[in-house]
Design goal:
The protein has helices at 2-15, 25-38, 42-53, 82-98, 102-109, 119-132, 136-148, 155-171, 175-183, 191-208, and strands at residues 62-64, 71-73. With 209 residues, it is mainly alpha-helical. A two-stranded antiparallel sheet has the order 1-2.
Length: 209
């Protein structure tokens, strides 16, 4: 947490040195929001990124620097930097989920393309958001999509996907499958996922007997 605070302070100092229409400004805001995310401060994430989205939108037209004669893009709200825009959507989706605004969470998480570096994580988060709103059918569609690329997921996300499959199996009254899927994964570093795993195991055992 101390490290995150230091990073946030450094980013804020850098941000204060440049104007809002500078092409690096939106990137610094997203980095500041990421530091707030690491510090578990979702309200700050929302404040930073919503303000960024309300700024002048990217026009798509190049502008020429009079001194350097180099062509650059007016990024406004990250229109020309896809990776930063996708990170912005992911961070906003996570922040809204953590603050209980699940509809907004789904809206932003759904905006991250599957092909993005953040696509798999956004979809994993989107599944939980849909489960939270009792939208099992929507959650299942995303799980199936994730399953088609499961071999490319890192081990942690693959385990989380299997836990989501177990959760879905409980919803579909398939306790044996739910139990087997839940027992196959281990969550040592996530209290939240461990709690969900125990809930799935308890419910599947209850349904079996």
């Amino acid at each position: 947490e101390i490290k995150s605070q230091r990073q946030s302070k450094l980013i804020e100092q850098q941000k204060g040195k440049i104007k809002q229409d500078h092409p690096d400004y939106p990137t610094l805001v997203v980095l500041e929001a990421f530091a707030a995310h690491l510090a578990k401060n979702p309200k700050t994430v929302i404040t930073l990124l919503e303000e960024l989205l309300l700024q002048v939108q990217y026009s798509g037209l190049p502008s020429q620097e009079p001194r350097t004669k180099q062509i650059r893009f007016l990024v406004g709200a990250l229109g020309s930097y896809e990776i930063w825009r996708n990170l912005l959507y992911l961070l906003l989706g996570q922040a809204y989920y953590e603050t209980g605004e699940t509809e907004k969470a789904i809206y932003y998480l759904s905006g991250v393309p599957v092909t993005s570096k953040f696509g798999a994580l956004a979809n994993i988060e989107n599944v939980w958001a849909n489960f939270k709103l009792d939208r099992s059918a929507d959650a299942e569609k995303i799980i199936q999509e994730l399953g088609r690329g499961a071999a490319q997921l890192n081990p942690r996300l693959r385990d989380e996907l299997n836990l989501q499959r177990a959760y879905l199996a409980v919803e579909k009254r398939q306790p044996e499958e739910a139990k087997n899927l839940a027992l196959a994964v281990k969550f040592k570093s996530s209290e939240r996922l461990f709690a969900i795993q125990q809930k799935v195991l308890a419910q599947s055992s209850f349904d079996l007997f």
